[in-house]
Amino acid sequence: MEIITASDLDVGYGKATILKELSFSIPKGEVTVILGKSGCGKSTLLKSLVGLIPPLKGEIFFSGEKIDFYSEESLQSLYRRIGVLYQNGALLNSLNVYENVALPIRMSHESLKKEEEEQEVYQRLSQVGLRESLEKYPSELSGGMRKRAALARAMVLDPEVLFCDEPSSGLDPITSSGLDDLLLDLKKELGMTVVVVTHELRSIEKIADKVMVLHEGEMHFSGKYDDLFSLDDAFIETFFLKKGRNND
Amino acid sequence: MKTQSKRLEVIADKFLKQFENLRAFFQLLADELFFTGQYLLRRKGIYPGDIGKQFFFMAYKSFPIVSLITFLVGVTISLTSAAQLKLFGADIYLSWFVGIAMLRELVPLMTGVILAGKIGASVTAEISTMKVLNEIDALKTMGVIPEKFLMVPRLIAITLAVPLLVAIADFVGIFGGVLVGRFFSGIPAESFIREMLNIVSLQDFFIGLAKTMVFGWTIIISSGFKGFSVQKGAEEVGRATTESVVLSISLIIFIDCIFAFFLYF
């Protein structure tokens, strides 16, 4: 069953079209990886899926409901159902870890009791292994800790879909693998749909159920990860071969 | 011919860009009026405790520099005018001049300029850095309206901070005049104040306060506008911060000029 479907999507900035005529679907409860060369528009597509860039053409449906990018109500309804982990974490520097994770709760349920809020935040911080760092500010955290705190914030309201923009970038292989395990736990334990933008082969191998490959502004491949290697496709072969070498 | 039409095209593009900037500025102003009203009615949409934090920064952290500068302006303006008034044997009128000039003109203008440099620059730098680091996008995808979340606490805080800063600045500026009157013109402090109160009224204080309040709002809107206009890159943060101070000071002087027309003609 699909949770997100897009048809005939053109995405870009101003007059420049970066992605052309994309049609795809994202299955519920699975991990979908969007990959492609640097600058191919992966993050731009993610921004469009989370409502930050209105498509130039085409439509996006979330659980069968069309997203109206020019309606505040439609966008707010989308935001209530998604969580986003940004490339650099995007934690608010003026707030400590606890306050950052509590922010979505405070902004959406301002009447929630202090104890209930604490319970939610502590639970999420324990899941990502940051229970001891709640007083720390983002500037006092390492790159991996920032990502984990941002992940706790992204999932604090139990979103239906978690979007992650290059979660492994800037992290060492061990921390990156730990983050992948967390994403897999979310899928297995909570049935969460996860959409990940990455070009890290190790991550893709470990977490991907479905893969969407973008190349030169178009959807080059969209299907099961296992089907990717049965293709006789020069670009995919080159991409994975080169990436594999780089990762090793 | 081709070069000429290209030049015209460039000029037209620049004009359209400026027009678009102007439209965006007034759009932000209208949005902020709406969001502030909405917040005052519903008390939702901003981070709990943020108004207090901003008020502390704007009032408590600004009052030493505002006091020092207005005191020095008070002393300078008094020394300059005392020398001129002495020529006509009209030393006692120094108090009239200092009272009116400080309350109506110099305190609002100097406070506005100091706040533009101190608070305006900080607001732009903070918002533009948040934009570059995707924090604004993160707020949006949490269902938070950044223009409300970040700007409303600052607008409310400046509204609360300005009366305190103006009162302190008026007091300190006039105190500078009293010192000059006492030590350079031989006017006793009681006579200086008694004479000043003959001409200065509470209305003058409120005119100065109203002007400073408008300057404060102008600073927050201008600096927010410049902060939100940054797209990406650290160099844009620096440029936006400088531009916000220039824009705020220019608007303050422009608005002061409009006030002068309405008040004196």
Characteristics of this structure?
heterodimer; A: 248 residues; alpha/beta; four-stranded antiparallel β-sheet; globular; B: 265 residues; mainly alpha
In short:
The complex is a heterodimer of chains A (248) and B (265). Chain A has 248 residues and is α/β, with parallel strands linked by helices.
Task: Give an account of the 3D structure.
The complex is a heterodimer of chains A (248) and B (265). Chain A has 248 residues and is α/β, with parallel strands linked by helices. In chain A, 38% of the residues lie in helices and 26% in strands. The longest helix of chain A is centred in the C-terminal third of the chain and has 18 residues. Chain A is globular. The longest helix of chain B is centred in the first third of the chain and has 41 residues. At the A-B interface, strand 6 and helix 3 of A face helix 5 of B.
List the helices and strands and how they pair.
The complex is a heterodimer of chains A (about 250) and B (about 260).
Chain A: E1 2-13, E2 16-27, E3 31-36, H1 42-49, E4 57-62, E5 65-66, H2 72-79, E6 82-85, H3 97-108, H4 114-127, H5 143-155, E7 161-165, H6 173-190, E8 193-197, H7 201-207, E9 210-215, E10 218-224, H8 234-247
Parallel strand pairs in A: 3-8, 3-9, 6-7, 7-8
Antiparallel strand pairs in A: 1-2, 1-4, 4-5, 9-10
Helix pairs in contact in A: 3-4, 3-5, 4-5, 6-7
Chain B: H1 2-42, H2 50-60, H3 63-87, H4 94-132, H5 135-141, H6 146-149, H7 151-184, H8 189-199, H9 202-228, H10 234-264
Helix pairs in contact in B: 1-7, 2-7, 3-4, 3-7, 4-7, 4-8, 4-9, 4-10, 7-9, 9-10
How many β-strand runs of chain B?
0
Q: How many DSSP-defined strands of chain A?
A: 10
- Report the mean per-residue pLDDT of chain B as an integer: 93
Outline the biggest β-sheet of chain A.
6 strands, mixed
N-end to C-end Cα span of chain B: 50 Å
Number of helices of chain A: 8
Spatial gap, N to C terminus of chain A: 36 Å
Tell me roughly what share of residues is in helical segments of chain B.
Answer: over 70%
Bin the strand percentage of chain B: under 5%
- Give the overall shape of chain B, derived from the CA principal axes: globular
Oligomer: heterodimer
Radius of gyration of chain B, Cα only, in angstroms? 22 Å
